Amino acid sequence: MKTYSSELFKEFPPGISDIVKTYSSDKITILKAKNVFSEPKGFGCYKFLLPSKNMPVAVVEKKKYFLEQKKIFPVNPDQVHLFTEEKSVETFIPIFIQKEYMKEFSHLLSGKSEIYYNNGTFNMDSHINSLVFQFMEEAQNKQPGYEFILQSLNIQIIINLLRDVGNNLSYDYHSKEYNDVKIIKKTEEFLQNHMCSDFSLDDLAAFANYSPYHFIRVFKKHTGKTPFGYLIELKIEKAKKLLATKTYCISEISTLCGFNNRTHFSTVFKRITGMTPSNYKDCIMK
Questions:
Q1: Do 237 and 206 fall into the same domain?
Q2: CB 3.0–4.6 Å: which of 23, 54, 85, 197 could bond 139 by disulfide?
Q3: Contact 75/67 with Cβ under 8 angstroms?
């Protein structure tokens, strides 16, 4: 069986095939990689990234996206994308799918061939994850009949991606209001997991795939707070828990909660709680 990787690697810089582990059928290639690159690149196929921990920020068509584990991030054919840093990371998995093969199944499912995935992070369904690892196992071991199993897995992977990853042909089963709730919940989870990271309102809006104005309006509607106000309250709640442990000094807690300095931390803490961090600590010590 002629594998798709032989065609795909023509689009990579020389030597890439020597530093990745490759698993390929005739239509799909899956890699295990540990290096990300900052050079802009677009591929003539569909790409789906399964990120590892501590991945750099991805940039697609000049928009920034924060990548998360157990999520899937799609890139369309010829979409220029890059990472903000060039470095080694924990093993991550990019999936490359031949463009015409994806279009063929798009037409079978929806009657339309032009399939375009929405940039952003989508929940990684456990079934897709299982199919990907089964594909890798079959491609590596090459037991008798593996070609037929890989052809079956090709179809299952593509159909599940078409169903579960947002695209221009997705069926609108849910109202816009429900979609807003899902996006705000995803943003809340991001803020909880990255409260000490450096990001702007524009970065958060891009993460939610909204304009900054619309993002603020929808976020406040569903949480009662602005994104900044919500983030500050998360930091103060974390600070309260750390103060109660008696393990850290106030300067250390300031840093652990993402404040630039102790003075700023104390000012914000008093504004939210009505007392300084020292007074709060004294109260819970009694």
A1: no
A2: 23
A3: no
